[in-house]
């Protein structure tokens, strides 16, 4: 079966892998430049595969600094969403407590329990995220 024709996306992916190999010390500059030139001249995916066949591509992609940056950005966003949901839920519970207190005269401050419990969850989420951001 003939090789599949390579497109720009495949060439760019191979070029990225080669760049990571250079940055992580798997390729010297001269070999990187040679392989990069051949990657952009390649017509098939088989040609591209041979350019990275001797490289630990999975390890290169795993240690890509852009991957870590994306993971940290996602973790920060997740912590922010959790915090905003917590604040909105707390305000809603306080509003319900106030409405019940004004309407029926029952002033027991029950929102302290769900706010406290949920707050422990938020703190347990935010602290590890912030610790990884600073490291």
UniProtKB/TrEMBL annotation:
Segments traversing the membrane: 83-109, 115-133
UniProt keyword annotations, A-Z: Membrane, Transmembrane, Transmembrane helix
Superkingdom, taxonomy of origin: Bacteria
UniProt domain DUF1707: residue ranges: 4-56
Keyword Transferase: no
PANTHER family with a match to the protein in the record: DUF1707 DOMAIN-CONTAINING PROTEIN (PTHR40763:SF4), MEMBRANE PROTEIN-RELATED (PTHR40763)
Name of this protein: Uncharacterized protein
